[in-house]
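Chapter summary example.
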Amino acid sequence: MYYLGAKVKYLIYSNAEYLLQSRKRMKQFCQANHLGKGLLTHSMSYIPFWFSHIVTDNDNSSYSVSLKEVQSLVSYLVCNHIPVNLKTLSRYLHSTIDSRKRPDVLKIIHFFKK
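The structure predicted for these 114 residues follows.
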């Protein structure tokens, strides 16, 4: 176990208080240190209302693309003679599609490639 002196405890407390006084400061700190939603709420079973705003500001996760969105985009790409692949879909949807987690999207791509 580590022993922290009074001076170190004071510095930690005063810096934490300084960050938590302003939403802008906390957001800048989280961005500078690459603290996303997962790290900010790692062991919290309840997120206080005042802290939920900070957490949502630092939410880097993307939404899950629906199958209907993929189908309509693929038909658009085929009509405009644009290559249909995961990279193109990700670029148009502004969301990364993981082929391991979304085999249904791969089926649609392979169907339209033929």
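To summarize the output: The chain has a mean pLDDT of 84.
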